[in-house]
Amino acid sequence: GAVVSQHPSWVICKSGTSVKIECRSLDFQATTMFWYRQFPKQSLMLMATSNEGSKATYEQGVEKDKFLINHASLTLSTLTVTSAHPEDSSFYICSARPPRANTEAFFGQGTRLTVV
Amino acid sequence: DAKTTQPTSMDCAEGRAANLPCNHSTISGNEYVYWYRQIHSQGPQYIIHGLKNNETNEMASLIITEDRKSSTLILPHATLRDTAVYYCIVRVAGVGNQFYFGTGTSLTVIP
User: Fold this and answer.
1) Measured between alpha carbons, how far is A26 from A1 in angstroms, rounded to an integer?
2) Which residue in B98, B102, B103 is closest to A49 by CB distance?
3) Lower Cβ count inside 10 Å, N or C end of chain B?
4) Confidence (pLDDT) at B1
5) Is residue A88 helix, strand or coil?
6) Ramachandran area for residue A31 (φ above 0: left; ψ -120 to 50: alpha; else beta)
7) Cβ distance of B103 and A46 shorter than 8 Å
8) Å from B60 to nearest chain A CA?
9) By C-alpha distance, which of B107, B97, B109 is closest to B2?
10) Per the CB < 8 Å rule, is B42 touching A1?
11) Are the C-beta atoms of A65 and A80 separated by less than 8 Å?
């Protein structure tokens, strides 16, 4: 199946700094990618939809100025957590779908962010 | 997207079939049923999806009731590596359409 890759797999950063997470579709072009956040023992929560060449669409309650999303190419979307705080510590996951009708979405392996 | 209801947790003996139910009574005619699973600290893995016909692949079978208000994911011979959280999602097909995850079923395969 198609592959979606995230980098880094884990990151530790100091409070107040910014962290960038990359999401790449390795063998298909993705005009749309999705970013999720998952806290321990909870389900995945959709944060935003990343659209190539245009602004991301954020879910209600997600701060767009804190979670900056850039989708500059058809194979790369980035999520930047700005001015990170300990409460931003979470598991961040991206997904993308090949541009064919009725296909499944593929998910990256996730990025574990710890803010200290 | 229609909401789904799944049992919080289930156990299954190794080697036996695991049958995971999902209720989606408000599903619309153009919404597909997707199943994913998530093993601890990994991204979700696609299992199978269908619209109204039963589907089978190398991982599992998907049985959708005739009224489409519920479905069952069947893992024919569960192994310890099938221990995971299983998510049933209904959504309209379309590249830009999001997947919204519910709480899922935590399946534990017991030796």
Assistant:
1) 11
2) B98
3) C
4) 60
5) helix
6) alpha
7) no
8) 15
9) B97
10) no
11) no
Q: State both tokens at A58.
A: 């954020």
Q: Could you tell me which of B45, B26, B19, B42 has the C-alpha nearest to residue B34? A: B45
Q: Is B57 exposed, middle or buried (0-12, 13-18, 19+ CB in 10 A)?
A: exposed
Identify the H or E element spanning B34.
strand B31-38
Q: What is the mean pLDDT of chain A?
A: 93
Residue A62 at interface with chain B, using a CB cutoff of 8 Å: no
**B111 and chain A: CB distance < 8 Å anywhere?**
no
A49 contacts chain B (CB < 8 A): yes
Q: Residue A22's Cα: distance from chain center in Å?
A: 7
**Which one of A44, A46, A47, A58 makes the best mutation probe of the B interface by having the most chain B beta carbons within 10 Å?**
A44
> In what helix (H) or strand (E) does residue B30 lie, and over which residues does it extend?
none
One DSSP character per residue, B54-87 reads -EE-SS-EEEE-TTSSEEEEEESS--GGG-EEEE
User: pLDDT exceeding 90 applies to what percent of chain B?
Assistant: 81
CB-based contact B101 A34, cutoff 8 Å: no
